[in-house]
């Protein structure tokens, strides 16, 4: 016996597929631009960006699990990524003064310089990807929703 699909679930699934397609298109376009012009992946850019926003006040530094949550990676993948960025001299790590189990990560001057150079590339690639996606009927409403958040 064949069940008739629930129209609400079908619409939800189609919406999810469109959202996934939009995300993939944007990430792929930004990835190519950042790799070509700055030797950075989208994830590396995201980690540098998140860590550059830390401050020295109460709660100003992120632990590795908080960085992982912010860039939507597993903790182990985030640790590997941070290791690579540290090996490139873009990040530095140190022990938390109040909790020796905690390890904090800061962006180095070289990391901040690279991030500043890459930010316009990221922003331009994002604009280009959104403009291209807006031309597709199934993605246009999602692009409008993203743009309305700005």
Description:
By secondary structure, the protein is mainly alpha-helical. The chain contains 6 helices and 2 strands. The chain has helices spanning 7-38, 42-52, 64-71, 75-87, 109-134, 140-148; strands at residues 91-95, 103-107. A hairpin with a 7-residue loop joins strand 1 (91-95) and strand 2 (103-107). The N and C termini lie far apart (48 Å).
Care to give the gist of this entry?
With 150 residues, the chain is mainly α.
Keywords:
150 residues; 6 helices; single chain; globular; 2 strands; mainly alpha; two-stranded antiparallel sheet
Unreliable stretches (pLDDT < 50, length at least 5) are none
Widest sheet: strand order? 1-2
Number of strands: 2
Fraction of residues in helix: 55-70%
The topology string of helices and strands comes to HHHHEEHH
Number of helices: 6
Largest sheet: 2 strands, antiparallel
How is this fold's topology laid out?
Blueprint: H1 7-38, H2 42-52, H3 64-71, H4 75-87, E1 91-95, E2 103-107, H5 109-134, H6 140-148
Antiparallel strand pairs: 1-2
């Amino acid at each position: 016996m064949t069940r008739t699909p629930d129209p609400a679930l079908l619409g939800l699934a189609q919406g999810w597929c469109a959202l996934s397609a939009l995300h993939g298109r944007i990430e792929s376009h930004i990835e190519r631009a950042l790799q070509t012009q700055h030797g950075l992946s989208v994830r590396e850019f995201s980690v540098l960006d998140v860590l550059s926003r830390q401050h020295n006040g109460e709660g100003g530094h992120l632990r590795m699990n908080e960085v992982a949550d912010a860039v939507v990676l597993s903790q182990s993948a985030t640790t590997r990524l941070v290791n690579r960025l540290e090996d490139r001299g873009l990040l530095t790590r140190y022990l938390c003064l109040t909790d020796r189990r905690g390890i904090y990560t800061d962006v180095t001057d070289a990391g901040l310089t690279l991030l500043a150079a890459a930010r316009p590339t990221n922003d331009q690639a994002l604009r280009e990807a959104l403009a291209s996606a807006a031309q597709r009927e199934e993605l246009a409403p999602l692009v409008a929703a993203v743009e309305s958040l700005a």
